[in-house]
């Protein structure tokens, strides 16, 4: 049978031998952090926003926060919320939660309050590490205690208490992913799973033997962050990228050069926006070869060829990483070199199966669904036993009663053991690295006043890239509603309401009103029959628009928006995000404005000034200041 596929071992496999207690029991990351502190206490552990922490300093601050958590009664295995912006305090908080023997639950401060509160309640969080907010202002549900990561209560007398002992099965973190039933679901992983992840990447030679300088790029709410921030436990130096640095190609390159960054994690979509600057940097040979850890979405064939050529040049090398949150970040990995895109063989300790609908191995070279097994498989979904039982099933090929995870991904095994990714078997999509269940967005949209039915699809535009497109049917009584706010919904009102319950990356960028959703003979929404966004444009868009842009800045911004958004007519009062803009397109807008006007600007400023007229005024102010 195709059966178990495991990857080859590299010459650097011996690296992990020194940090492994028995071949099947990788050392816990917090134990390894203690060794890193002892080996190089004065070495730099973290760079963030112009400040730094040594390993000894990071250890001391971690112990202080962990002590505060223990004094608040945090018990081993308990879930502790962490809601902090990017910075050194975030690294301190994550390590402190582990030191207290608990599991961290990342809660993005930018999420809508309703979503943050829902995550806190669902995870059973009663203590939360944040930035000096006591919760009295309604930021958190009643009864939640907070700890200030920057200024914990004075530590007890004497040396800091050692880390709370844990086992491989102790929960490590709970990361919430989009849920097909309409609410996000928390995936709970183990400390042993995280240790196995790092050990597997070391064995494959993808983590170098010697300490490296690593840029932390991904959101802490995204599971790829674990593979980045936890490297400080190996003795690597962590450079925490700020929002401006990670979204501005020029500033990112400056940061890479300033700190001598050697490893950078990013999605293929992010690479597409940074590629010109990073390729120039590689060609000029200003630093040693940069190693890219690429994941979150499939690597396009053109990108694969480009990175393979760069690797051949010796100044840039890239890895393709694949894995669901339910299998602790990465399950397979491959160097991007030669040939065509693939997701590589399994990491050490991970077992992969390519099975048919009857859980039988498919023939060699045939496509099937990918199942994953081994120590990295998560514990399951928090408070969702039925969903856990559906996705985490008994491994029929193991004699020890362990489980395997059903990924929902279609793959094909090549003769060399590498896997080719062929897409999804369900309605889950990846957009800009985030995993999104379209059903969750549909449920939120259908729950809005005046909406009778809703459907959401992922549309790929050659101009603006991937975007979520919403279709809705107004309720029969919406037009007669006495309250105008509950009348016939518009794209603007729907987007505003959804922004109160969904994170920004899940907001549809195009909204189309239909008399009825097209259905198949089985009564399901006929996705293929939904009109493309271009076919559903406002008829008034073909007329001369009111509120036409005026002045040099407004006219230039309108021209740029028209180009990057694929819109024919732009008004001065239009909202960039309501028209389909998102973070990656905002980068393109900023690049054009900087090139045209020679001003220093970041993508964050487009978020602060989303309406064209307001952005033009801001640009004029920057030009005047320059």
Automatic annotation (TrEMBL):
Record flagged with keyword Cytoplasm: no
Domain Carrier: 548-623
SMART domains in the record: PKS_PP, PKS_PP_betabranch
Disordered: annotated segments: 1-21
Residue ranges crossing the lipid bilayer per the database entry: none
Keyword field: Phosphopantetheine, Phosphoprotein
Keyword Transport part of the UniProt annotation: no
NCBIfam families: AA-adenyl-dom
Protein name per Swiss-Prot or TrEMBL: Amino acid adenylation domain-containing protein
Species: Streptomyces nondiastaticus
């Amino acid at each position: 049978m195709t059966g178990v596929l495991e990857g080859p071992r590299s010459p650097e496999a011996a690296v992990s031998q020194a940090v492994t207690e028995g071949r099947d029991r990788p050392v816990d990351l917090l134990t390894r952090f203690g060794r890193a502190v002892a080996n190089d206490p004065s070495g730099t552990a973290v760079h963030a926003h112009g400040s730094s922490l040594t390993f000894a300093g990071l250890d001391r601050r971690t112990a202080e926060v962990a002590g505060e958590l223990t004094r608040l009664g945090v018990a081993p295995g308990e879930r502790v919320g962490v809601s902090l912006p990017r910075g050194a305090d975030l690294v301190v908080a994550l390590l402190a939660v582990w030191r207290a023997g608990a599991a961290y639950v990342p809660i993005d401060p930018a999420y809508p309050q309703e979503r943050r509160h829902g995550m806190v309640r669902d995870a059973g969080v009663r203590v939360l590490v944040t930035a000096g907010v006591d919760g009295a202002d309604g930021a958190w549900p009643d009864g939640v205690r907070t700890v200030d990561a920057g200024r914990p209560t004075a530590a007890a007398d004497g040396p800091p208490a050692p880390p709370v002992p844990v086992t491989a099965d102790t929960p490590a973190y709970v990361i919430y992913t989009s849920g097909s039933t309409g609410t996000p679901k928390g995936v709970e992983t183990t400390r042993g799973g995280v240790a196995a992840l790092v050990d597997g990447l070391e064995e494959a030679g993808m983590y170098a033997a010697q300490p490296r300088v690593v840029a932390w790029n991904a959101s802490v709410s995204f599971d790829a962050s674990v593979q980045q921030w936890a490297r400080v436990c190996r003795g690597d130096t962590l450079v925490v990228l700020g929002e401006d640095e990670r979204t501005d190609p020029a500033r990112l390159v400056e940061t890479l050069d300033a700190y001598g960054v050697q490893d950078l994690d990013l999605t293929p979509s992010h690479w597409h926006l940074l590629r010109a600057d990073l390729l120039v940097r590689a060609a000029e040979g200003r630093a040693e070869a940069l190693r890219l850890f690429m994941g979150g979405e499939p690597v396009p064939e053109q990108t694969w060829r480009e990175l393979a050529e760069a690797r051949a040049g010796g100044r840039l090398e890239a890895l393709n990483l694949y894995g669901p949150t339910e299998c602790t970040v990465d399950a397979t990995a491959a160097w991007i070199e030669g040939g065509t895109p693939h997701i590589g063989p399994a990491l050490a300790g991970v077992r992969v199966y390519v099975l048919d609908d009857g859980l039988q191995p498919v023939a060699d070279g045939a496509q099937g669904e990918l199942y994953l097994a081994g120590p990295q498989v998560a514990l399951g979904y928090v408070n969702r036993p039925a969903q856990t039982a559906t996705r985490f099933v008994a491994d029929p090929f193991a004699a020890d009663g362990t489980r395997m995870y059903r990924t929902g991904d279609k793959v094909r095994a090549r003769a060399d053991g590498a896997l080719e990714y062929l897409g999804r078997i369900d309605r889950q999509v990846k957009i800009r690295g985030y995993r999104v269940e379209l059903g969750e967005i549909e449920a939120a949209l259908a729950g809005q006043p005046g909406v009778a039915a809703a459907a959401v699809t992922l549309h790929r535009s050659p101009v603006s890239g991937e975007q979520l497109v919403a279709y809705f049917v107004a309720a029969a009584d919406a037009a007669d509603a006495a309250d105008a706010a509950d009348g016939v919904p518009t794209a603007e009102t729907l987007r505003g309401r959804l922004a109160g319950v969904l994170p920004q990356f899940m907001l549809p960028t195009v909204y189309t009103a239909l008399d009825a959703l097209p259905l198949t003979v089985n009564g399901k929404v006929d996705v293929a029959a939904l009109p493309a966004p271009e076919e559903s444009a406002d008829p008034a868009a073909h007329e001369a628009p009111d509120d036409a842009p005026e002045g040099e800045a407004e006219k230039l911004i309108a021209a740029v928006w028209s180009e990057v958004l694929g819109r024919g007519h732009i008004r001065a009062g239009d909202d960039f995000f309501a028209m389909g803009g998102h973070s990656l397109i905002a980068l393109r807008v900023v690049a054009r404005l900087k090139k045209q006007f020679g001003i220093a600007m970041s993508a964050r400023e487009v978020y602060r000034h989303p309406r064209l007229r307001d952005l033009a005024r801001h640009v004029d102010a920057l030009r005047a200041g320059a």
